Amino acid sequence: MFETITKHVRENSVVRFLLSHLIILLAALLICAVGFRSAFVIVRNDVLDSTMFAMTQAVSSVDNGLTELRTLGMQTARSESIYRLENLRHTDDNYYQNIIRAINEYYQRMLYYSPNWVNNTFIYLNSMDRVIYNRAVYAPDIFSGYLLEWGDDAALWQAVCTDDNRAPFFCKLGGQDIYYGIPSSRLMSSKTGTVFFRIDSDWLEEKFSLLEQYNGYSLFVLDDDNGGVCLYSHDDLSLADSLPEDWLTAQGTWNSGNDLVLHLAGSDSLGLSYLLVLPEQQAMRQLNTLRNQMLFLIFAAVVLGTAVSLYFSVRRGRPVNEIARALQAADGAVNTLSAARSASLCRITPICCRSRRPTAPRCRRHFTTTCSNRTLSPARKWSIWRSARALN
Questions:
Q1: 134 in the Ramachandran plot: left (φ > 0), alpha (ψ -120 to 50) or beta?
Q2: Hey, what's the torsion of the CAs at 386, 387, 391, 392, to 10 degrees?
Q3: Mean pLDDT: which of 181-185, 287-291, 321-325 is highest?
Q4: Which residues pair with 191 in a beta bridge?
Q5: How buried is 268 (Cβ within 10 angstroms: 0-12 exposed, 13-18 middle, 19+ buried)?
Q6: pLDDT, tens only, 233-270
Q7: How far is 46 from 287, CA to CA, in rounded Å?
Q8: Is 222 exposed, middle or buried (0-12, 13-18, 19+ CB in 10 A)?
Q9: Is 70 helix (H, G, I), strand (E, B) or coil?
């Protein structure tokens, strides 16, 4: 089989031209494919770096906003007017004056410095068991009506208010919004109160709006100081109930199956971290589009190159095949004529006829011998001479 193919290739000029053209075409395409692959690797790394950079910028913006809010809360919690309410009693002469002063100072501060992404701000006073909100003082059971209106759980809020945690903290009270609490306490004393900021969850959605370009992703804001509790989530991939433990502890960027995972730590003072899970086909969709276009162009180049190679191979090889067939036919005709004339001469000369393969040299030698015979007539010698001359 191989010998037949080799013989066919060797004897057919069209096939030889086509193979040479295809080898050159495939070599060029191979070099291009290697270059494209290297370029794709570089572009993929650039896409990962750009995604990481965009996430870092968004996390930095969130941290800056929360840090400013923390500063505002600590200034409010440590204000002198709040401290005066620590041991205030209903029977004190200056009870209402101190409350009004604290309310006005708190209201003015929130009016001018509270960011627009904070929905509500209120202060719970431990010693008085009262809540300052919206230029008024409420009993906890009355204020619970606002919490229910916001979709939060009053029992969870009261449990947070009565613990002895003195560090700023984040929490969720059953609703969608995040609460940031700033405890108020003097040195070596118990907690006197807590300033609460109710943060609009849409603000976080806006900060991470860069992710809207992807059709599906999962983003989690985790409270590392509270055991990795999820404070905010955008979970298109339904991963909230099945997050692996190593995802919550590791930092950086890695691939997990078909997903791209980014876990970035926020500010140390806030204790937050940000976990992004993005399907790699979504992260690389522009690169995949480019790769599909390149594959299509390579396929088109192969088809077009093969067609052009076949056209020129036939155009150049067919005349060569025709010349080769003509030469073979001419060579066969010459051999047939030589054999016929040799046989004719051998019929004239009996000695040649004894040979199985009459040849011209053999007949010429016989002609010389025959012509030396004086018994032959001149006509016979002339016939033998013409036959021998025709073999020259």
A1: left
A2: -20
A3: 181-185
A4: 185
A5: exposed
A6: 888 888 888 878 878 777 777 777 777 778 888 777 78
A7: 10
A8: buried
A9: helix
